Amino acid sequence: MSDLSAIVKAYDVRGTVPEQWDERAAEALGAAFAQLLRTSGEPAGTVAVAHDMRESSPGLAAAFTAGVRSEGLGVLHLGLGSTDLLYYASGSLDLPGAMFTASHNPAAYNGIKMCRGGARPIGQDTGLTELRDRAQALLDKGETRPLDEPLPPLEHRDLLPAYAAHLRTLVDLTGIRPLKVVIDAGNGMGGHTVPAVLGDAALPSLPLEIVPLYFELDGSFPNHEANPLDPANLVDLQAAVREHRADLGLAFDGDADRCFVVDERGEPVSPSAITALVAVRELAKHPGAAIIHNLITSSAVPEIVREHGGEPVRSRVGHSFIKAEMARTNAAFGGEHSAHYYFRDFWFADTGMLAAMHLLAALGEQDGPLSELGRAYERYASSGEINSTVPDQRAKLAEVRAAYPDAETDELDGLTLRFPDGAWVNLRPSNTEPLLRLNVEAPTPERMVALRDEVLGLVRR
Questions:
Q1: Which of 264, 240, 269 lies closest to 355, judged by CA?
Q2: What is the dihedral sign for C-alpha 142, 145, 150, 153?
């Protein structure tokens, strides 16, 4: 019997297949999703469903589809897609949706990202807990509800060309200088979407010479995990950028909703710098707009947003919190340290592809290299995220807080300490593991290292 509490997380469904969940659980989740939509007054007659290239994805998506239809709703099946393609379908057609992917996780995993019509997120506090309980009840009962009437419609449609055309209406790359770009798709869905959006597979060519790296769709990830957040997975991209003397390199995660960047030297460009760069471009389109950043993005982001007339809004970490703040403030743009980028023009949803297009436009509209362009957005030294196993997280947070009585503190997400010289520390508990996650930023590398080691000493003693 599947225990869905182990796989239904704060923002999505995620677990190993078949150990933690299988097609039977997927069917129950599909039926529960349809029930949730119906009881919450969602005007849904149809659910959009897409899946990534993992071996288990087609079967899980088919079982989920059967569950949805057993509850009387139709399904628009999009086939292979990226998560932001699913959001495009949900937004442009105003349909609830489900994307089968485990994002950057290893091959043994799979999961579901679900949204309501208009790409509105579903998280723990907005329906996911109820959905889990409904699905668990169906599993415990042993069967999904049989439909007495004929099954509702199942339509198959390829939205990739329309998705690509829509993105090109948001950022015009036709007039930029020629750029050579190495793109590492990590055998994930970037290999499906990049040729359509940035290449000439579906639309006229752009002044881009694309050097493809691992574009073959393969959910076993034979070259490296599709997780660019781990520096080990950027090594091949960095080497290829140098070998081909490219202007930049882009790396997408498994479901191609996140995009990481390396410059012409093969050096990583921080997601905070990309957030600030894209924010400036969005503020030029939407003067005075709110820009969302989570509390562990660089202090440079709110500084640059203010300098360009925008209103920075600080958020908890996590896409459901960012999306909620985006909707509440009608923000033009939002960015996270994890390379999730959210756009008002994209139904407040996240799309790494659109962020990449902004970067290509910014680079191609001037003559300097990316390392020079990016320098304007990098102002501080950052530790990156460091995890420590801590059984009693609450007690440890109190201990660290007591060690810095003169620091300014807040508890928006975990514990944040701010110091008079501009340095800051954030310690926040993991939602799913006995971990504390540490992020440190300071005006100089020396100050960052000293503060990082001091706090780590407290956390790990």
A1: 269
A2: negative
Q: Select from 312, 273, 269 the least CA-distant residue to 294.
A: 312
Residue 233's SS3 state is helix
Neighbours of 335 (CB within 10 A): 28
Q: Which residue has the tokens 């997927």?
A: 26
Where on the phi/psi map is residue 108: left (φ > 0), alpha (ψ -120 to 50), or beta?
Answer: alpha
Task: Please report, as a single letter, which amino acid is at residue 243.
Answer: E
Q: Which amino acid is located at 208 in the chain? A: L
For residues 335 and 319, what is the distance between their CA atoms, to the nearest angstrom?
Answer: 10
* pTM listed for this prediction: 0.94
- Kind of pairing between the strands at 109-116 and 13-16: antiparallel
Handedness of CA 111, 21, 316, 92 (dihedral sign): positive
* Catalytic center residues: 103
Q: What string of pLDDT tens digits covers the 461 residues of the chain?
A: 579 999 998 889 999 999 999 999 999 999 999 999 999 887 779 999 999 999 999 999 999 999 999 999 999 999 999 999 999 999 999 999 999 999 999 999 999 999 999 999 898 888 999 999 999 999 999 866 555 667 888 999 999 999 999 999 999 999 999 999 999 999 999 999 999 999 999 999 999 999 999 999 999 999 999 999 899 999 999 999 999 999 999 999 999 999 999 999 999 999 999 999 999 999 999 999 999 999 999 999 999 999 999 999 999 998 878 988 999 999 999 999 889 999 999 999 999 999 999 999 999 999 999 999 999 999 999 999 999 999 999 999 999 999 999 999 999 999 999 999 999 999 999 876 789 999 999 999 999 999 999 999 999 99
Report the distance separating Cα 51 and Cα 54, nearest Å: 8
Angle, to 10 degrees, between the axis of helix 271-285 and the axis of helix 352-364? 80
